[in-house]
Structure to design on (557 residues):
């Protein structure tokens, strides 16, 4: 059964429809990326789920119960929510910011402390940060704290509205990688809004593409590749989408170490040393730079394998992620 | 730094209140005092009266306008709020002498009309600043608070009031300083306080007497100001 199921949702502000018959199911433990151009209704949709916005018609069922059955405040305390503007409380230090929801839920203070320590351990922030105030944090640190604050009470469902929106690309990538690692452990049901296609490709179990308040397509990142000819999908994701898709696949996770150890002595091929975090995209870049049509990928253990252009597509299709 | 300033103001104040008798004695050697205008009330009593007349209305105004400002914020609509804000601004331009004079027909002579006038005078700027302060809390922050499941009152006490406090304090600062000095006008309608030597001194061209009344008022106003300076410096 779906964790969140949204059906035929309508919401308009005055004459303008922000949500125009939107339907979507989000499975338990799934990281669903909601993507679409600015103003297409992504934030509005999230706010309908936790009832910050009252929708006009349609239904939202959360864990088998319509959201309208819950008491508003209790519903929100049970859902992790990162708002687009981060919105840390400037008069509270980092610890107090993270502790807001647990305190609303009247957790004992030791339990909160334990929880904060655990969150800190998986987040890449140090204990020194706990006593800092939001104005003393960098943009990236503030967004991390925003995510931790949403995770604080260990809610099964998270709504994240461009949680890494205000960070520079380099930091952004670190945050994404951290978040992905975290999600693999925690297995939350996440609806994650972005308008960054690369972010969507990297993080998504499925991508839901939105336009003008409607759902245009929802599929795994690799599945959308086949639909690039459909007007809006191709326009929004970009014709180079297949190329971007390559960065989703980490070579290490493809499990090809030790296989195909042949021709290692062939001196003509360019050698590429395998590094942690290297993706198929890096491999393709290497292939383009190489003189011939193959490169020799060497693992730290000293094994090597010869990879050609056609291998890349095979690797991608064989990948399970 | 701020503590040095406060300590200096307090010691000057104490020195003045309890040492002024010696200055008067010295002065009377040169210029003999005219017995008719010798002040019978001790200076520290006048100071005490002055403090009560200035502080009680201001604190009452703080309580009333903070409470009504919060209620207005939680339950009121936009029109009511902007009404409160413009009333506050109008109130500030209204001279306190006029309010004191106007309250005499209602309450008669004495401390009460003066205190009522000062109360009215303090309510408006504090109310205005409470309403503005609460509505100026950035939307992202109130949205976050709501999104985490705080109800209206949790939002008010945990988030909005702490963030609005500097703005409210600015209103309180204005009201307090104005009231400390405006309380001297009470002497014209029969109230006690440091206005008595000032008014008497002006009537008899007695500079020393005017100074006797003004210096403590000045020092009290400076001290009140330094109380707020500490807060805003820490926050900035
Ligand atoms: N409170 C509001 N009052 C009036 N119109 C609103 C309100 N909130 C959103 N809208 C309108 O609804 C539409 C959808 O807004 P929404 O914030 O959901 O967009 P979004 O997809 O999150 O955009 P972005 O990517 O820029 O954050 C927009 O056209 C916006 O102007
Ligand atoms: Mg948005």
């Amino acid at each position: 059964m779906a964790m969140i199921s949204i059906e035929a949702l309508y919401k308009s502000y005055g004459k303008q429809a922000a949500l125009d018959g939107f339907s979507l199911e989000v499975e338990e433990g799934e990281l669903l990326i909601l993507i679409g151009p600015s103003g297409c209704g992504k934030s509005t949709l999230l706010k309908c789920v936790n009832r910050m916005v009252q929708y006009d018609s349609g239904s939202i069922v959360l864990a088998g119960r319509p959201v309208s059955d819950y008491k508003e405040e209790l519903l929100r305390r049970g859902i992790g929510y990162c708002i687009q503007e981060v919105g840390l409380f400037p008069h509270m230090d980092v610890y107090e910011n993270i502790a807001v929801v647990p305190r609303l839920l009247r957790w004992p203070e030791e339990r909160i402390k334990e929880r904060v320590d655990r969150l800190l351990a998986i987040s890449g922030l140090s204990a020194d940060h706990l006593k800092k105030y939001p104005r003393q944090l960098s943009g990236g640190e503030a967004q991390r704290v925003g995510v931790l604050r949403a995770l604080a009470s260990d809610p099964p469902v998270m709504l994240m509205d461009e949680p890494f929106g205000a960070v520079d690309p380099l930091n952004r990538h670190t945050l994404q990688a951290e978040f992905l690692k975290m999600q693999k452990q925690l297995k939350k049901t996440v609806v994650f809004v972005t308008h960054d296609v690369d972010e969507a490709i990297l993080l998504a179990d499925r991508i839901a593409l939105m336009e003008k308040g409607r759902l245009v397509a929802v599929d795994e990142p690799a599945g959308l590749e086949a639909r690039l000819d459909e007007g809006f999908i191709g326009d929004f994701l970009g014709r180079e989408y297949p190329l971007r898709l390559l960065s989703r696949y980490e070579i290490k996770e493809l499990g090809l170490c030790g296989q195909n150890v042949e021709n290692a002595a062939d001196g003509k091929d360019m050698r590429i040393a395998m590094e942690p975090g290297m993706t198929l995209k890096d491999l393709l870049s290497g292939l383009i730079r190489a003189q011939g049509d193959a490169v020799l990928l060497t693992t730290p253990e000293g094994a090597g394998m010869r990879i050609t252009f056609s291998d890349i597509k095979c690797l991608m299709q064989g990948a399970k992620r | 730094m701020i503590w040095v300033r406060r300590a200096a103001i307090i010691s000057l104040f104490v020195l003045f209140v309890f040492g002024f008798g010696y200055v008067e004695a010295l002065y009377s050697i040169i210029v003999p005092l005219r017995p008719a205008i010798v002040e019978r009330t001790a200076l520290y009593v006048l100071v005490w009266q002055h403090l009560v007349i200035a502080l009680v209305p201001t604190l009452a105004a703080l309580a009333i306008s903070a409470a009504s400002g919060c209620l207005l914020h939680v339950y009121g609509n936009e029109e009511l709020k902007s009404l409160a804000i413009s009333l506050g601004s109008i109130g500030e331009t209204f001279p306190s002498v006029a309010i004191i004079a106007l309250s005499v027909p209602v309450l008669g002579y004495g401390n009460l009309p003066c205190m009522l006038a000062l109360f009215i005078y303090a309510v408006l700027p504090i109310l205005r600043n409470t309403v503005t302060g609460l509505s100026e809390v950035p939307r992202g922050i109130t949205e976050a608070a709501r999104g985490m499941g705080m109800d209206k009152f949790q939002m008010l006490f945990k988030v909005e009031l702490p963030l609005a406090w500097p703005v409210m304090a600015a209103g309180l600062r204005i009201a307090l300083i104005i009231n400390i000095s405006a309380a001297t006008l009470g002497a014209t309608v029969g109230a006690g306080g440091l206005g008595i030597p000032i008014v008497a001194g002006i009537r008899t061209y007695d500079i020393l007497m005017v100074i006797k009344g003004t210096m403590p008022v000045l020092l009290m106003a400076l001290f009140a100001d330094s109380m707020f300076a500490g807060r805003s410096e820490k926050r900035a």
In short: The longest strand of chain A covers residues 16-26. The radius of gyration of chain A is 22 Å. The CA atoms of residues 69 and 167 of chain A lie 37 Å apart.
